[in-house]
Amino acid sequence: QVQLVESGGGLVQAGGSLRLSCAASGRTFSTLDMGWFRQAPGKERDFVAAITRSGGTTYYADSVKGRFTISRDNAKNTADLQMNSLKPEDTAVYYCAADKYDRMGYTNIRKYDYWGQGTQVTVSS
After folding, report:
1. What is the dihedral of CA 72, 81, 36, 116, to 10 degrees?
2. CA-closest candidate to residue 37, choices 27, 26, 45
3. pLDDT at position 3, please?
4. pLDDT of 49-105, one tens digit each?
5. What is the distance of C-alpha 66 from the center of its chain?
6. CB 84 within 8 A of CB 67
7. Residue among 32, 34, 28, 74 nearest 51 (CA)
8. Cβ distance 68 to 48 under 8 Å?
């Protein structure tokens, strides 16, 4: 079983930055593909970013390309999401997710077996 705990959410003004962190336990971290999703009120949970287990390849939603950066530290068992130039439309609960089966489809919510509890990000205009 994999446990994921997000941290780093909060309230920030438009144009500001936040860094989210996801701490994983219960399995060798380097055997997990990691992703970040977000869900705004009344909307579906959407893909934000993903990173392969080696960290060699990253994927981003078009809406965050050039502003967000996903990274991981396999020695510290963490996957981070650096968010810059934040916009009010980035407001959502952000979830960390993990896949242990090395499935394809990094942007697909069905790839991921394990989820954190979420952390709120609010961007004021």
Report:
1. 80
2. 45
3. 97
4. 999 999 999 999 999 999 999 999 999 999 999 999 999 999 999 999 999 997 889
5. 15
6. yes
7. 34
8. yes
